[in-house]
Recover the amino acids of this structure.
């Protein structure tokens, strides 16, 4: 632990951060200082350059003025004439006096120190004042050229042993007084003391400065000569010289054409900033310079500030980081302390658990020797603690379970933990099943196994019971003849028995994951879902229903279904259990029974109606017969009346007979006694007979009867029951006449493949679609005003249908109410050839 704290003592991240912040601050401070320095340098150099320019302009102007003086004197002809005369009359006192006066005026009024008149042989002929009257070497060398050129010249500043002061001369060559006479007769030399009139220009400085000065220099051989008096060297006038080769000397740089420098050492060897200019028209250079120290004085103030700010910043960040580091340390130690407290608490807690644990806890070393055991272990194994400690843990196992020991501990060694079941033996030799949860632990670098064991005798017993019960349930479930199915809370199927698979035709795999929705008929789904909700809410204890299921092959079957909701101990719904009994056969029988019952009821109803009709139908002709026969007995009846009565009796008898025939026919059909008597007939002939009979019988005014026989007689010789065929057709034609007021009735046949298709078509009242099938039922009459006004029993068409079917064909009707009906039927086409 100590080493951990020690390690944390070195705040590396903070130190690195501080190092980065500090060096960044230093770099920034330095860069800022450098930029300040650069600005000051640029400003100073700019100012120096401007001052140098100003001075140069002033010197040029001063020179101009001097040269103008010279030109003015050279052009003053009267004065020239006087001077010329003086050359020839040197003893003319008056003239000399006048000329001296004028020389004096140059000296007095024009700031010249001396005025001399020389002749062309460089002999001084006249001068004022009386000192420094000798022409020195410099001038002596220069004058012959001036005389030759005849131009006004301002000389360089020079020193000569014969003149007491450093000076320069304005040389005015004097031309002969005649207008055409250009001969030079002498030179007027006006000596200028620059100390008095030139250097003051240099000495003024536009700003207050302790070290700034302007220097005028020229070169002599390999040396720079300082012409004016230097600020920092009082007696330097024309005395101070420096070699041109001297490094960093502004004067030397000026000669080399360098215009400004920030890195120079002046004549004293002091670092300066300087701007240099050449003075045009002269051999002079002007240097304006300031001591570096003065120029950078402001900078050194700022330098102090920058250093101060940088140092403060670094110190502050140091303090801040130190503070943060300290805080972190405090937190670290606090956490350490808390962790230690927790650890102590845990140790206590674990000691407590170890002692009082309800599980066997053993600590085993790497050689499987027990090194620690808790109270429960001692109690369970019936050994003292001392007996247990030092014992090899495998000795707790029974000989039978010892075989697996090596394997178990190998897995434990490899994976670090293992849970397994085995059998252990107590000291008294009794065995018990135990569940061990073992884990490899590292205690201060030494590997151990910690084994927690639990006596699972009771659990094993319960498991056995459970598994037996589960097995029983499985058997019942699997072998039940009833379909059984279990679903989860979400209604997804989780278990089915084979009866259920057979019931629906799906395999078990297909059913797992399905829900009832997948095979319940859509009509029942809503009801089912409601019932399930009610089961969950405990509104109903059980849900019983009879419903349809859709099998895998699409067929629909009925199942009587009972659904139970199974809840856990907390009363939460966990499973749905459904039992289904196949009741398809029962349902079918019921449906058939109901249909039969309905049919019977319908039949009964029809028969009642029939009886009513029959009695009416029979009673009507019977009344006529009885009434008119009794009238026949009345005395005095005329022959005509009698004949009429007999006709009525005859017709009524016929009607009665026809009704009775119908009833007999039906009875025959119902009892299965009607037989088919096939014989050879000619269809055309039979039809013609029927047509004739109706033509004779019926005399309707508005209805015509037409027969259509599309095939020639020889081709319609067939083999069938002619009587039945005629009866069918007659019935249909009879009906057609009954239900047709006007228009036409046509009948005939057509050959259709293996059949002859007969038709009877009328333009009568027609039959509504809903009645078109039913009219072939027994006793069925379309209950309409039209039907009711005709007599009838509702038997005719059903007899036709029975006969057609007996003959091997079928019958149907096409009809539009108000337009008419076409009754059609087929009979097999059995030509005579076939019979042979
Ligand atoms: P019914 O003796 O009452 O005529 P049917 O069995 O012959 O008995 O006919 C049953 C019913 O069919 C009739 O009552 C009638 O309503 C209807 N019907 C039969 N033929 C025609 C037809 N040609 N035109 C219209 N209705 C017809």
């Amino acid at each position: 632990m100590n080493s951990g704290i020690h390690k944390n003592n070195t705040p590396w991240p903070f130190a690195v951060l501080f190092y980065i912040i500090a060096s960044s601050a230093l770099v920034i401070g330095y860069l800022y200082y450098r930029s300040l320095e650069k600005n000051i340098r640029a400003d100073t150099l700019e100012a120096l350059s401007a001052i140098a320019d100003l001075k140069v302009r002033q010197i040029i102007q001063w020179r101009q003025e001097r040269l103008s003086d010279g030109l003015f004197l050279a052009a003053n002809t009267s004065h020239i004439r006087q001077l010329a005369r003086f050359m020839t009359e040197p003893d003319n006192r008056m003239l000399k006096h006048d000329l001296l006066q004028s020389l004096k005026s140059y000296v007095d009024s024009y700031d010249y120190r001396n005025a001399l008149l020389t002749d062309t042989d460089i002999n001084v002929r006249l001068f004022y004042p009386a000192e420094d009257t000798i022409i020195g070497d410099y001038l002596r060398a220069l004058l012959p050229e001036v005389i030759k050129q005849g131009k006004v010249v301002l000389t360089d500043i020079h020193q000569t042993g014969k003149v007491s002061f450093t000076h320069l001369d304005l040389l005015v060559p004097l031309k002969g007084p005649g207008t055409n006479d250009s001969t030079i007769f002498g030179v007027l030399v006006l000596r200028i003391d620059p100390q008095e009139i030139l250097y003051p220009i240099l000495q003024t400085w536009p700003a207050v400065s302790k070290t700034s000065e302007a220097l005028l220099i020229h070169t002599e051989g390999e040396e720079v000569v300082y012409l004016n008096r230097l600020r920092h060297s009082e007696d330097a006038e024309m005395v101070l010289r420096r070699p041109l080769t001297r490094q960093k000397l502004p004067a030397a740089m000026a000669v080399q054409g360098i215009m400004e420098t920030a890195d120079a050492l002046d004549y004293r060897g002091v670092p300066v900033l300087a701007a240099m200019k050449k003075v045009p028209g002269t051999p002079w250079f002007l240097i304006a310079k300031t001591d570096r120290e003065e120029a950078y004085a402001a900078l050194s103030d700022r330098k102090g500030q920058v250093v101060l700010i940088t140092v403060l910043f670094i110190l502050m960040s140091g303090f801040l980081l130190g503070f943060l580091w300290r805080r972190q340390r405090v937190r670290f130690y606090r956490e350490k302390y808390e962790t230690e407290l927790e650890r102590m608490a845990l140790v206590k807690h674990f000691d407590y658990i170890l002692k009082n644990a309800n599980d066997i806890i053993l600590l085993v070393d790497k050689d499987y020797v027990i090194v620690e055991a808790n109270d429960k272990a001692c109690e369970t194994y019936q050994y003292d603690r001392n007996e247990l400690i030092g014992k090899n843990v495998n000795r707790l196992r029974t000989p039978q379970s010892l075989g697996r020991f090596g394997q178990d501990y190998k897995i434990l060694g490899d994976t670090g933990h293992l849970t397994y079941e085995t059998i252990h033996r107590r000291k008294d030799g009794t065995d018990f099943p135990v569940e061990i949860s073992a884990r490899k632990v590292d205690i201060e670098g030494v590997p151990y196994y910690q084994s927690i064991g639990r006596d699972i005798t009771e659990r094993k017993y319960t498991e056995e019971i459970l598994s037996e019960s589960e097995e029983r349930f499985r058997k019942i479930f699997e072998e039940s003849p009833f379909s059984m199915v279990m679903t989860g809370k979400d209604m997804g199927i989780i278990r089915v028995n084979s009866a259920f698979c057979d019931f629906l035709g799906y395999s078990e795999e297909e059913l797992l994951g399905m829900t009832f929705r997948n095979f319940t008929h859509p009509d029942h789904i809503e009801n089912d879902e409601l019932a399930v909700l009610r089961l969950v809410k405990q509104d109903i204890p059980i849900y019983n229903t009879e419903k349809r299921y859709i099998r895998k092959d699409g067929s629909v079957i009925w199942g009587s279904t009972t659904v139970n909701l199974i809840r856990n101990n907390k009363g939460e719904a966990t499973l749905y259990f459904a039992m289904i009994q196949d009741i398809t056969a029962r349902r079918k029988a019921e449906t058939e029974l109901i249909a039969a019952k309905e049919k019977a009821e319908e039949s009964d109803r029809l028969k009642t109606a029939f009886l009513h009709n029959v009695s009416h139908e029979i009673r009507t002709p019977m009344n006529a017969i009885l009434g008119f026969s009794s009238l026949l007995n009345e005395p005095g009846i005329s022959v005509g009346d009698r004949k009429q009565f007999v006709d009525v009796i005859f017709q009524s008898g016929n009607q009665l007979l026809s009704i009775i025939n119908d009833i007999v026919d039906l009875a025959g059909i119902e009892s299965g006694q009607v037989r088919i008597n096939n014989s050879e007939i000619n269809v055309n002939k039979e039809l013609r007979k029927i047509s004739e009979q109706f033509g004779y019988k019926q005399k309707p005014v508005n209805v015509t009867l037409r027969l259509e026989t599309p095939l020639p007689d020889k081709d319609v010789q067939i083999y069938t029951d002619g009587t039945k065929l005629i009866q069918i057709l007659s019935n249909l034609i009879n009906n057609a006449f009954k239900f047709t007021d006007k228009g036409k009735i046509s009948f005939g046949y057509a050959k259709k493949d293996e059949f002859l298709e007969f038709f009877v078509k009328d333009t009568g009242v027609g039959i509504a679609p809903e009645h078109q099938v039913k009219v072939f039922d027994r006793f069925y009459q379309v209950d309409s005003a039209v039907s009711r006004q005709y007599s009838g029993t509702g038997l005719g068409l059903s007899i036709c249908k029975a006969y057609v079917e007996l003959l091997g064909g079928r019958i149907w009707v096409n009809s539009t109410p108000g337009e008419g009906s076409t009754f059609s039927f087929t009979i097999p086409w059995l030509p005579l050839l076939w019979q042979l």
Notes: The longest helix spans residues 12-75.
